[in-house]
Design brief:
This protein has 409 residues and is mainly alpha-helical. The chain has 11 helices and 8 strands.
């Protein structure tokens, strides 16, 4: 059964009610007018409270009613058309109430409060017989229809029942699921009883199924949201653990670097001290020899023979002693070479590049966190157990630092 004809008046009424509601909206508060409604000289309407708010905003020095000194007049502009409204000494309370609009609002609220199904029953008409209201229910076709359809139309051979009785049975429910308790329409021949299950019962079952399914889906969504939160928490925790592990490796590398630099610095200082000691020794010898040369030159210029012979003997002895001093102590060949401090970190770098996550499942203690740093200590032990080669490529013979900073004399 097509109810398009019956629904058209309903749609038209809904549109009319919506249009009417738009006409009953206050331009200030954008709500439906509240009593009392005042009419302005320009024929526009306002709630009295909204009109008073606009008036007070335009006339801040105007005193309210009941004050000892009431000034005369006041003015403001209509919010709809900007027409200037001039008031007497009573202010907004001197404006006339629009009783017609107030009555229309009351009627609108009463009509809006009526149940939808009551309006539908009043306007639902038969499509085939436009002047006939739908007032019976065909039990075979499970469709509402009118009396003429039962007597002359498509439902003349069907079993029917009064529409209110079927409505009450479907809405409230009754014993059994068949057609018992639903009286047949007296007009026309009675057809064989047909099992009847109220559509409302089926609709209720379908709604219950959908609600139960929605509950299950919502439970699944909640569970998966909880899984997402757990994944985020676990990922954040593992990032922190990974950062701690690498910070531990950085500390190990920095400590080892410091130790190796200290080793180089110690040998560098020892070698430099030895060579500087030899430089001082040779410098002292050079200075003494230079002074002896000057003394010998002065002796050669002595004019008195006795004085010359007296000093020459002593100078010859000093020259002989100076020439006997050994100046053979010097750094060995390759002494300045520091290449034996070269290291090979290629295999360590390769090991660091191949760091991967553990494939074995973590134990309870390991999964909880870094704990007391035992894993960091283990990493440090593994790195320290890797002996750094003392020399990869020696340039020249390796020499030990001399025990004496001055060398051999």
């Amino acid at each position: 059964m097509n109810f398009a004809v019956g629904l058209k008046p309903l749609l038209a009424e809904a549109r009319s009610m919506e249009s009417l509601e738009k006409q009953l909206i206050c331009p200030i508060c954008l709500e439906m007018f509240t009593k009392p409604v005042v009419i302005l000289p320009c024929q526009h309407n306002l709630c009295r409270k909204c009109a008073n708010d606009v008036f007070q905003a335009s006339n801040p020095l105007w005193q309210s009613r009941g004050s000892s000194a009431v000034p005369s007049g006041g003015r403001f502009r209509c919010p709809s058309c900007r027409h200037e409204v001039v008031l007497d000494r009573h202010g907004v309370y001197g404006l006339q109430r629009n009783l017609l609009v107030e009555n229309i609002i009351d009627i609108y609220k009463q009509e809006s409060a009526r149940p939808l199904h009551a309006k539908a029953e009043q306007h639902l008409m038969c499509e085939e017989h436009e002047d006939e209201r739908i007032n019976i229910y065909c039990l075979r076709c499970e469709a509402p229809t009118c009396s003429l359809c039962k007597v002359f139309g498509a439902h003349k051979d069907c079993e029917v029942a009064p529409l209110p009785a079927v409505y009450q049975r479907q809405k409230v429910g009754g014993p059994g699921g068949g057609s018992e308790g639903v009286p047949a329409h007296p007009a026309g021949p009675r057809a064989l009883p047909i099992p009847f299950r109220p559509p409302q019962s089926e609709l209720s079952d379908g709604i219950a199924m959908l609600v139960a399914g929605n509950d299950r889906i919502q439970a699944i969504i909640t569970q998966m949201e909880e899984i997402c939160r757990t994944i985020e928490d676990n990922g954040r925790r593992q990032k922190q653990h990974l950062g701690l592990r690498f910070d531990s490796l950085y500390s190990i590398l920095e400590e080892r670097k410091k130790e190796l630099l200290q080793s180089i610095a110690r040998e560098q200082e020892a070698k430099v001290q030895r060579v500087r000691g030899l430089i001082r020794q040779y410098g002292d010898h050079l200075e003494a020899s230079s002074k002896l040369v000057e003394s010998a030159i002065q002796a050669m210029e002595e004019p008195q023979m006795a004085v010359y012979l007296q000093h020459s003997k002593e100078l010859l002895k000093k020259i002989t002693d100076m020439s006997k001093v050994s100046m053979s102590s010097r750094p060995e060949p390759g002494y300045e070479n520091m290449d034996h401090f070269s290291i090979n970190v290629d295999y360590v770098a390769e090991m660091l590049r191949t760091i991967e996550f553990q494939t074995e499942p973590l134990g309870e203690d390991e999964a909880d966190g870094p704990g007391d740093g035992s894993e960091a200590v283990a990493d440090e032990d593994r790195l320290e157990s890797l002996e750094v080669p003392e020399a990869v490529e020696d340039v020249g013979p390796r020499q030990k630092p001399a025990s004496s900073p001055h060398g051999q004399h």
